[in-house]
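Researcher: Here's the sequence for the chain we discussed earlier.
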Amino acid sequence: MKRFAVSIIAVLATSLPLAAADLPEETIGEVVSFAREDHARLVWVTDMNSPYQAESRAYLIDPDAGRFLGMLNLGYWTNGMQLPATGNRIVATETHFNRTTRGHRTDVVVSYDAASLQPLSEIEIPPKRVSSVKMQGTSALSDDDRFLAQMNFTPAQSVSFVNLETGSFIAEVDVPGCGNIYSGGDREFHLLCGDGSFLTLKVDEDGLVTERLRSAPLFDPFVDPITISGVRKDDTWYFVTLGGALLELAMTEEGVSLIRTWPLISDDDKDDDWSIAGFQHLALHAPSNRLYLLTLQGPPEAFEDPGTAVWVFDLETQTKIDSFELEEISISIALSQDADPLLYVIGAHIPMPFLAQLWIYVTEGEAPLAEVVQLGLDIYEADDGTYLRSVPRLGNAPTYIQPW
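Model: Thanks. This is the structure I predict for it:
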């Protein structure tokens, strides 16, 4: 038997190099483009890659096939990307250091080709770009995709304006007390300010600010502040407060005004300890006028903890029409915008059987489980909450979902 085993090993040892030699030679540096028309739906998931923020990433996913298609490296501590309506490019504001984590800092607005994911151009801007955990409201595109506005924080607050058509930096504008920016017109940008008001910056054809409009406070930031994770349909933006109230805001060339406010979480729900959850709390399906809210049972101050359920509202009737439990606790939600929408969820997966999880939790607490959590993209039918599939292990800290 021992002589037979030695013979088998000898045969394998002599045959392996021959098998390796039969493999085709791989071309180094080859770029393979993909055709968007081959994919019914696509979605980007952005990952700040904490605690390795020097190399933030964005992952391109085919949600119908559950396939990972490509990746962008977005530099140090990304705040996400902008996706122009034309679909032929991707725009990201990036920070780079010439010694990776130290040295000279350069901030650039980079345009990527949407088919090859290769960089097309860079526009250098002042090295002041804000770095924050939540990515929404840190930059905005004009509705005609011509101008990009990027929030800065030093901690002085300002906005850098870039002309994407000419590939040039325009100007930096001080906006004290206003920390997040949202699009709302071809030549208007709207900033959320600390006193509950909004500042509208109107720019001319060269991208220079020509007018400032300041609204009255539209909510009380000391009683029930809104979160920065808003969603948009046409000229209306929707924001939710920590207490679960929805603010509908008109953002136009006239400035920002309150349309109406109404509760997503009722008093009875609050009595049962329901509150908003996660980072990307809201998702909007514009064709059906349905709003989705990520929720959990916990106090309002736990509003960024992972959610366990999604509630669905009809914006016309201002009523809750559905709810469903999620397969895994989740931090962000988004929706495709087609007739049969998918619900995208960043879910937390623990790669071990439930009984093993339970045993560790009972004997050692939750800390060992937190160390092995893997975040991935979970995909559901938006109409009834049916779980379809997952794309697991998307980096270290994916938080932001952008249907494409």
